[in-house]
Design brief:
five-stranded antiparallel β-sheet, 9 strands, elongated
Length: about 140
């Protein structure tokens, strides 16, 4: 009986520690400058996450993960925004907007609040000019 209680206590402590680490990670990611809640769809499934602007690209972190490294990273100069679509909820416009994107040869969708995707558009437009290595 005592052994079972020790096992249960240990599992409970490990679960609380894991939950605490997950909450700390989400808090740390959400407080970064240039971060916003953003879901990604590649294929059929949406995945919740937090996106962060960096100097050279857009980093995306899954919500359910303990890694501080991004799950996806799109280079700024290769990211193209193709189309924007407002979502409908019960026949009414939602504050969440979907953005159809392309990065190199892959296409995907981002879903976030309209103001966050407005920021994404501005961030891409404010990118420094692309350098070309063409010789004349």
């Amino acid at each position: 009986m005592a052994t079972a209680l020790i096992w249960i206590g240990g599992l409970l402590a490990a679960s609380l520690l894991l939950a605490g680490l997950l909450l700390w990670r989400l808090h740390a990611l959400g407080r970064r400058v240039g971060s916003f809640e953003c879901a990604v769809r590649e294929g059929e499934h949406w995945h919740a996450g937090i996106a962060t602007y960096t100097r050279s690209g857009l980093d995306w972190h899954r919500v359910v993960s303990l890694s501080l490294r991004p799950s996806r990273r799109w280079q700024r100069e290769k990211l193209v925004l193709l189309a924007r679509r407002n979502r409908q909820v019960d026949g009414r416009a939602s504050r969440v907007v979907e953005m159809h994107c392309r990065h190199e040869n892959s296409e995907f969708y981002l879903a976030a609040q309209s103001s966050a995707l407005d920021g994404l558009v501005s961030w891409l437009e404010a990118a420094p000019p692309r350098s070309t290595n063409e010789t004349i």
